[in-house]
Design a protein that fits this description.
alpha+beta, seven-stranded mixed sheet, elongated
Length: 343
């Protein structure tokens, strides 16, 4: 079963479309216009169904349910024996072997209505009817033919025996379906094609022709290529992300020690040079920069030595302004005068 599409490699396409039945419980209803058989025990037979019937296609039912007259025609053509206890048609071993040798074919001619001119024929080989029943139906394995007698029209059904040889495509959006001859090939490759939405203007969906199937191959190929490209881009992005992660970890492991150890290895700054008392600096307010003025070191007990004077940067907070400071010459004259008076 394929949802939303079909496998174009599994059937022979045709142009017949069947409309959904108005009864929701019997959507897939079609007309069986004729049933014929070839290579039976009596050769090619006349139509097994004298009149056309409307039948439901139902995969939940294993058998084919037909009117009683049609069942009688099958009994004669295939040597069937009706078992009243189980309501099944059984076949003895002799007849079974003969039918396997003849390999008869049952053909159902189907249409959208009982008198539709557009029809499709589905062939069912004897292998589709060659089944066996065992316990609890029969104590021993017994050959039987999956044909059932219908009591009324509501029981006419084409079950899984029919669906073994038929391929059904149902389009619930357009309310129609198609039935085609199933194909069994040694090539098991599937060719899935999606059913286009009704929004594209198409009014019905039929089994696609051979020309349509080639277009489906191109669409499928384009989808596969797109998926491969998307997958390749995704894998490349993942590989790039992993590479960056590994590179970052490698750089982190390549550092020399912890941050604290690295800070201990730094070259220490030189200790500040001690500045003797008496050195004064002033700040040039007009240029907003610090200007250092070297003043002679003064000590009462020793002579003046300009070389011993050093600068010490500090802010002048609460000290006299630069205009009030004595010049070095005035301070020297005062010092000399005081020394002379003491002498």
């Amino acid at each position: 079963m394929t949802l939303g599409g079909y496998d174009q490699s599994r059937f022979n396409p045709n142009d017949v479309s069947f409309s959904f039945d108005s009864d929701d419980s019997r959507r897939l209803t079609l007309a069986i216009q004729e049933i014929t058989a070839t290579n039976t025990l009596h050769g090619d037979t006349a139509p097994l169904a004298a009149v056309g019937i409307l039948s439901l296609v139902d995969s939940t039912v294993p058998h084919i349910w037909l009117p009683v007259p049609a069942c009688h025609a099958f009994e004669k053509a295939f040597g069937l024996v009706y078992d009243n206890a189980t309501d099944l048609y059984v076949i003895n071993d002799t007849i079974h072997a003969r039918l396997q040798q003849l390999n008869p074919t049952v053909t159902l001619k189907l249409g959208n209505s009982l008198f539709s001119s557009e029809t499709v024929s589905i062939d069912l080989p004897y292998g589709a009817f060659d089944l066996q029943a065992s316990y609890p139906i029969y104590p021993n394995t017994t050959n039987y033919f999956p044909l059932r007698r219908a009591s009324n029209e509501s029981q006419y059904t084409l079950g899984r025996t029919f669906l073994q040889e038929a391929y059904v495509i149902a389009d619930y959006e357009r309310m129609n379906f198609s039935v085609s001859q199933a194909v069994f090939s040694s090539d098991n490759r599937s060719h899935i094609v999606s059913i286009a939405s009704a929004g594209n203007g198409t009014t019905e969906v039929n089994a696609p022709s051979k020309a349509q199937t080639s277009g489906g191959n191109a669409t499928q190929l384009a989808i596969i290529i797109s998926l491969v490209l998307v997958f390749s881009i995704l894998m490349a992005a993942i590989a790039l992300l992993l590479f960056r992660r590994k590179r970052r970890k490698r750089l982190e492991k390549g550092g020399t020690g912890s941050p604290a150890e690295r800070s201990d290895n730094r070259t220490p700054l030189p200790a500040p040079t001690s500045v003797p008392e008496g050195d004064i600096y002033k700040r040039d307010l007009s240029t907003a920069s610090t200007v250092f003025t070297e003043l002679p070191a003064y000590n009462r007990d020793r002579e003046y030595h300009p070389a011993q004077s050093q600068l010490r940067p500090q802010e002048l907070l609460g000290s006299p302004s630069a205009a009030e400071l004595e010049s070095p010459q005035k301070a020297l004259r005062s010092h000399t005068l005081n020394e002379a008076l003491r002498a």
